[in-house]
Amino acid sequence: MARGDQIYAMREWIGISSVYEHHGIDCGDGTVIHYRKTDTAEVARTSIALFGQGKPITIKVQPVALLPDTVVERAESRLGEQRYDLLTNNCEHFATWCKTGRNESEQLAGFGLQLDRLQGVDLRRLIEGTTRDRSPEAAIALFHQALGDIAGAHRTLQTQYQRAKQDADTWQRVAQTALDQGREDLARAALHRKVTAKKKMNTFTQHLAELVEVQLTLEQNRRLSEQKLR
C-alpha cells in the first residue's frame, strides 16, 4: 500500500463476518482517512490498525486515478464532514471521489435490486423514516415492496455465490488431477480459472454490504410505522 491508495477492509454485520467493504484513503504515514462510524458518521483520520480492525486490507484498483498527493488533499479537505448518506455519500462514495473524482459506489450499484420500481423520493423517505405525507398503511405497503425486492436480490446473490463456489471447487479438483498426471500446464490453467471463480465469490459477498444496511434500516422503520397503527 502507498500514499493515495484507495483501500478497504471487510466488515462484519450482525455477527456475519466479511459482509461488506469499508473504504478509505491511505495517507502513507500509517493513517487512513475514512467515514468512521461511532455515535455519528464522520470523516476522520485514524490509524491503519483501527481502520482494518484486524482484517486484511486490500487496495481498490481504479483504472483512472488522480495523483497521490491530490487524492490525500481531497480526503483532508473533507475531514470533520458529517454528511454520511447510505445512497449518495457512503464510505465508498467518499473514497472513490477522493481517488477518481467520481462519486460512485460499486457495491450499491451491484445489487441487482429492482428498487427503481419505487419512486426515488419514496425510497429516500422509507430509509430516513420520514413518510409523514403518507398514511401508515401506505408506508407499510411501500416497505413490503422494497423488502420484497431486497429478498429477491438476496436469493439472486446466494445462487450466484453457490455457482461460483462450485466452479472454484471443480477447478481445484481438475488442477489436482492434472498435477497427479504430471500435466503442470493444465494444472496452471485450472488454477487460473479457480482464482477467477474465487474473485466472483468475493464480489457477490461484498455486494451484500449496503444491501444489508438498507434492509435493516427499512425493517426498523417498518416496525415504527406498524406501531402507529396500534
Features:
230 residues, alpha+beta, endopeptidase fold (from Nostoc punctiforme), 2 domains, 8 helices
Structure report:
The protein contains 8 helices and 5 strands; from the N terminus they run ββββαβααααααα. It is of the alpha+beta class and 230 residues long. It folds into 2 domains: 6-105, endopeptidase fold (from Nostoc punctiforme); 127-228. Strands 4-3-2-1-5 form a 5-stranded antiparallel sheet. A hairpin with a 3-residue loop joins strand 3 (31-37) and strand 4 (41-47). It is flat. The model is unreliable at 14-18 and 112-121 (pLDDT under 50).
Shape: flat
Mean pLDDT: 78
What is the string of helix and strand elements?
EEEEHEHHHHHHH
Trace the largest sheet across and list its strands.
4-3-2-1-5
Radius of gyration: 21 Å
Question: So how many helices?
Answer: 8
Count of folded domains = 2
Q: Which residues sit in consecutive blocks of at least 5 with pLDDT less than 50?
A: 14-18, 112-121
- In quaternary terms, these chains amount to single chain
Provide the structure class: alpha+beta
User: Into which percentage range does the β-strand content fall?
Assistant: 15-25%
